[in-house]
């Protein structure tokens, strides 16, 4: 590309493109929930089919993040991001026009595949567009903030769209955002470096997808069937077996999909563990509190969505603050402080959330949790980008986002399995889950303090040393 066209690029518009792609991907995680009743009536599908309308997306998304990250490193982040966003847009149209539940579930799988292509490559785009660490930290906070806003606004947006325009509108709304995101990416995002020396690792790809699919299936189904279910146990056992095979194969491959030496970098391990713990608590809480508002406090689905708006607002602001803190003090401070604040919120929920608690009382721990998680999430992305060479940002981002997706799925499974029985049992189960999540936040903060080097420290990661 010539100098003039390169100089006409705007990193801010490239950030907007990456954020738009992330927004519609995250929106589809929560927006579908409020449309399930209408979908069930229109397509004549039962509860199991409706669960798979949600789970098909999660399963495909979580299973393919590693492979998609490696593909982005090989082919270039911009190319993979645009391809993923185009596929997501087309799949959204197919979802909105689906004539039956089976077609809708199939197109939701395609959406999940496309989402997996977009997420690691969107982070790689930011790494390329913002080489300055300070600017990159702020960009990552905006990227994460828009995603958090989409997740929190999903139930409200879904409720309004379903009431006014019918359930297909929750999918068709993605189309204009996808088109604009593709155009902005092509116009303003530079073509990132490609690691063409990395060959396609078909055995590693296959085993990675199978192991992650088995884990995601087991965890997702645990909420419906229970952890002792043969299907759930088979899924978890399959994850163990295929993960062991995956590690064995990757050790022998001359060009592995996932270079295992990446895990010698403390930032990779810390961000993955912290990301898993953050999503475990946050997604588990969002799931359980949505049920709490509706089944314990008799809110309508729309009222339950509106109940999360204060939390959504502070999460968006806290994400932006996190970027400023990371730019000035390094990534470790917001990571540790955020987890400490989230832990405080989880522990407060033990005493402040009950069947007869007022909305204002319930909001206090929710705000603490939301702000804490929002402070920590951008910092783990900044920490990862700081310590990874550009040719491996895609696969490293795939590792982090896979860990986060696994954490979220486990959180929903654990919180869901504990939130059962009578009203008293549900509240008690919510308290137990909150204490577990709070303990996880404390553990994550301690890991970040002890394992991570001083903020801003760099590690020499030469691609030639990776196998």
UniProtKB/TrEMBL annotation:
Q: Which GO terms describe its molecular function?
A: transmembrane transporter activity
Query: Where does the record say this protein resides?
Result: Cell membrane
Q: What is its main location?
A: membrane
Record InterPro entries: EmrB-like (IPR004638), MFS (IPR011701), MFS_dom (IPR020846), MFS_trans_sf (IPR036259)
Q: Which GO terms describe its cellular component?
A: plasma membrane
Major facilitator superfamily (MFS) profile domain ranges (all copies): 14-456
Which Pfam families does this chain map to?
MFS_1
Keywords, sorted A to Z: Cell membrane, Membrane, Transmembrane, Transmembrane helix, Transport
**Transmembrane stretches, start-end:** 12-32, 52-72, 84-106, 112-130, 142-161, 167-188, 200-220, 232-249, 261-285, 305-326, 333-353, 359-385, 406-424, 430-452
Q: What does the record say about its membrane topology?
A: Multi-pass membrane protein
Q: Does the keyword Transmembrane apply?
A: yes
Which domain of life, per UniProt? Bacteria
Which sequence ranges form a coiled-coil region, renumbered to this chain?
none
Q: Which family does it belong to?
A: Belongs to the major facilitator superfamily. EmrB family.
Q: Which NCBIfam families match?
A: efflux_EmrB
Q: Entry's PANTHER family?
A: MAJOR FACILITATOR SUPERFAMILY MULTIDRUG TRANSPORTER MFSC
Protein name stated in the entry: MFS transporter
Question: What is the species of this protein?
Answer: Trinickia symbiotica
């Amino acid at each position: 590309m010539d100098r003039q066209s390169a100089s006409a690029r705007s990193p801010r518009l490239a950030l907007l493109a990456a954020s738009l792609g992330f927004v519609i991907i995250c929106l589809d995680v929560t927006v579908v929930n409020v449309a399930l009743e209408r979908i069930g009536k229109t397509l004549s599908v039962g509860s199991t089919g409706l669960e798979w309308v949600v789970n098909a997306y999660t399963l495909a998304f979580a299973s393919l993040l590693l492979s998609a990250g490696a593909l982005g490193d090989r082919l270039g982040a911009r190319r993979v991001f645009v391809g993923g966003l185009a596929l997501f847009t087309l799949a959204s149209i197919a979802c909105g026009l689906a004539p039956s539940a089976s077609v809708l579930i199939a197109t939701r799988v395609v959406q999940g595949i496309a989402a997996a292509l977009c997420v690691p490559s969107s982070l790689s785009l930011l790494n390329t567009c913002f080489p300055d660490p300070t600017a990159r930290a702020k960009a990552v906070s905006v990227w994460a903030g828009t995603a958090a806003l989409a997740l929190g606004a999903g139930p409200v947006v879904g409720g309004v769209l379903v009431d006014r325009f019918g359930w297909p509108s929750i999918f068709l709304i993605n189309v204009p955002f996808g088109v604009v995101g593709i155009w902005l990416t092509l116009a303003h995002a530079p073509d990132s470096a490609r690691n063409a020396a990395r060959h396609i690792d078909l055995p590693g790809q296959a085993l990675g997808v199978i192991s992650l699919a088995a884990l995601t299936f087991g965890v997702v189904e645990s909420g419906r069937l229970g952890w002792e279910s043969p299907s759930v146990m088979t899924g978890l056992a399959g994850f163990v077996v295929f993960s062991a095979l995956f590690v064995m194969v990757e050790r022998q491959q001359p060009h592995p999909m996932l270079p295992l030496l990446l895990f010698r970098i403390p930032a990779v391990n810390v961000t993955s563990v912290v990301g898993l713990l953050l999503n475990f608590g946050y997604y588990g809480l969002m799931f359980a509190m949505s049920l709490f508002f509706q089944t314990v406090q008799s809110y309508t689905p729309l009222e339950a969505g509106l109940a999360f708006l204060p939390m959504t607002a502070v999460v968006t602001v806290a994400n932006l603050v996190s970027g400023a803190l990371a730019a000035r003090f390094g990534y470790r401070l917001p990571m540790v402080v955020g987890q400490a604040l989230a832990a405080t919120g989880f522990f407060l929920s033990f005493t402040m959330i009950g069947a007869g608690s007022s909305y204002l009382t319930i909001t206090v721990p929710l705000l603490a949790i939301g702000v804490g998680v929002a402070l920590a999430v951008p910092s783990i992305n900044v920490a990862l980008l700081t310590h990874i060479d550009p040719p491996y940002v895609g696969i490293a981002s795939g590792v982090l986002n896979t860990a986060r997706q696994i954490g979220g799925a486990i959180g929903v499974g654990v919180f869901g399995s504990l939130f059962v029985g009578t009203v008293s049992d549900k509240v008690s189960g919510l308290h137990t889950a909150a204490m577990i999540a709070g303990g996880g936040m404390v553990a994550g903060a301690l890991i970040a303090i002890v394992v991570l080097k001083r903020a801003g420290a760099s590690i020499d990661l030469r691609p030639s040393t990776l196998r």
